[in-house]
Amino acid sequence: MVKLNKIYTRTGDDGTTGLVDGSRIAKDSPRMAAIGDVDELNCAIGVAALHLEGETLARLRMIQNDLFDLGADFATSGTDFTPGEMTLRVTAKQVARLEEELDAMNAQLLPLSSFILPGGSAAGAALHVARSTCRRAERTAVGATRDVTLNPQAMKYLNRLSDYLFVMARAVNNNGADDILWVPGKSR
Asked: Which of 82, 84, 98, 132 is the one with CA 20 to 30 A from 122?
């Protein structure tokens, strides 16, 4: 368990921040941008969670926990992505869990007949914000891989998660019945 006695350390006053191994990098580095976008994603999921309960809420809380692991994974240098007692790494098992839950939710949805406008309900709208934030986090992480090696399972997790959040938004919108469909050229 992590214990934080003091929130500020002053060590970042020079524009750097620490990685898990103690090394320091610029706060605006591509790696830190990816970590920051994952943090923002976690916040967006937290807002969506305010509108949910039961199993759906429990799933989002598990995902929020996974995203803290993913942030720690991105903050861990190296190319050995084996998890350890003191090394958090996203695993294929976490990706598989997302896929299984996504498939189960998707099986209950009405077929899509058009693209969907974000909304339908407060929970659905919040999940669409989280979905689009997830897409940005994934893009930022992909950009970071030009400079550093990131765990391929963490990258897969982000990719699956955006699909997961899309399907969950439809599920909370009465399994798609309350989705707002895009009507091309409607306002011409």
From this structure: 98
Are the CB atoms for 23 and 77 separated by under 8 Å?
yes
Enter the DSSP assignment of 84.
Answer: B
pTM attached to this predicted model:
0.93
- Is residue 185 within 8 Å of residue 115, measured between CB atoms? no
Q: How far apart are CA 73 and CA 7, in angstroms?
A: 21
Token pair listed for 36: 């920051």
Token output for 60: 């989002």
How does DSSP classify residue 71? H
Contact yes or no for 75/137 (Cβ under 8 A) = no
Binned at pLDDT 50, 70 and 90, residue 86 comes out as: confident
Ranges of each domain in the chain: 26-76+90-176
Domain 26-76+90-176, what architecture?
A: Up-down Bundle (1.20)
